[in-house]
Amino acid sequence: MKRLIDIMLSTLLLLMLSIPMVVIGLAVRLTSTGPAIHWSKRIGRFNKVIAMPKFRTMYIDSPDIATHLMDDPKKYLTPIGSFLRKTSLDEVPQLWSVFLGDMSLVGPRPALFNQHDLVTLRTNNALHKLRPGLTGLAQIKGRDHLSIEDKVDYDLQYNRKKCTLFDIYILLITVKKIFKKSDISH
To answer: Where are the alpha helices (DSSP H) in the chain?
Structure first.
């Protein structure tokens, strides 16, 4: 049921957002050198490395590490990068990953390929069996402000409670937080 909902909603959203995605892609290309889409190496289900698309918000010579590990992340942001991140518009291309089955609409956010501490903690708690999500319980509970241990704790809570109604609740709270621009650091 979850996979069917993912396919139907991602298809609908990709169709509805196709024109805004073209506009955003053009804006990225016109305001900085490089491709509009950044294919981020992430850890997917069963710790398989996946290529997760995002609108590029950083210059192409930026280090490939988690933003919170950078000395001064703002110096790497493109002219529209901060706006795309604060509005979560940089995440829209991930609907393609949901459609393909690499991701789900709701689940633990996929770790960067080099976030070994997060990957290890999730694996030790059997969370690597879950399909990563566009959003998740950790995102609505604190997003950028949570420690790795807290993120995994929320992932565990999600795994215990997961059902269609809980996913709908998380999606609705995600939309509310996007419009309020809350819990976003960069």
So the answer is: 2-16, 18-31, 81-86, 94-100, 116-124, 137-141, 148-161, 164-180
Spell out the residues 6+ positions from residue 151 whose beta carbon is closer than 8 angstroms to its own. Answer: 108, 109, 118, 138
pLDDT digits (tens, 9 = 90+) for 132-185: 999 999 999 987 789 999 999 999 999 999 999 999 999 999 999 888 765 555
Handedness of CA 166, 167, 170, 172 (dihedral sign): negative
What are the φ and ψ backbone dihedral angles of 80, each rounded to 5 degrees? -110, 5
Find the largest Cα–Cα distance for the chain: 45
Helix, strand, coil fractions of the chain, as percent rounded to 5: 55, 10, 30
At 105, the amino acid letter reads L
How far apart CA 38 and CA 51 sit, in angstroms, is: 9
- Nearest residue to 184 (alpha-carbon basis) of 62, 67, 95: 67
pLDDT value, residue 152: 97
Q: What is the pLDDT of residue 182?
A: 59
0.85 exceeded by pTM = yes
